[in-house]
Amino acid sequence: MINTLRAYHGPYSKLDLVKRIGASQQRAELEVLSEEWRSSIAENRAGLKRIDELMGLLRAVM
Fold it and tell me: Which of 9, 17, 27, 51 could cross-link 13 (Cys pair, CB 3.0–4.6 Å)?
């Protein structure tokens, strides 16, 4: 999740979300943040094109 945020928004954007994802210690915490992550990725035109693929990959690792 952190890597895709940095890829689509750069290293200094969405820092609050990146920090909350990094601090998560349980799957349930990440599941709560996944919708905010999805919305953030969809803000970017390239991210919007790949959002279904990225959500599928996220679900696969969770």
Answer: 9
pTM of the model as a whole: 0.87
Beta strand ranges found along 1-62 (DSSP E): none
pLDDT digits (tens, 9 = 90+) for 33-57: 999 999 999 999 999 999 999 999 9
DSSP state of 46: H
Our CA dihedral for 39, 6, 57, 21, rounded to 10 degrees, sits at -70
DSSP letters, 6-54, are HHHH-TTTTHHHHHHHHH--SHHHHHHHHHHHHHHHHTSHHHHHHHHHH
